[in-house]
Amino acid sequence: MDQLELFDIANPCIGVCQSNNRGYCLGCLRSRDERFNWHLKPASERAHILRLLAQRRARLKQKQQKEESAVDTPSSLELF
User: Which PANTHER family does its entry note (predicted)?
Assistant: First the structure.
């Protein structure tokens, strides 16, 4: 049985509507299909998309941290 949704699920759009080379929005991280007709999608589908976005944000954060640590850590060549 589906859980009763008491509140509408907010649109995750932050107004940065540009896509990366893989087709994901740079602002909200949704694909074109996930963005298209957001307000018409069933609440269960929107909730699923929001879970996917949380996973994408976590992966992006890990990638950024890895890149920052690579820049902050001098290579053995930089030590000489």
Answer: DUF1289 DOMAIN-CONTAINING PROTEIN (PTHR35175), OXIDOREDUCTASE (PTHR35175:SF1)
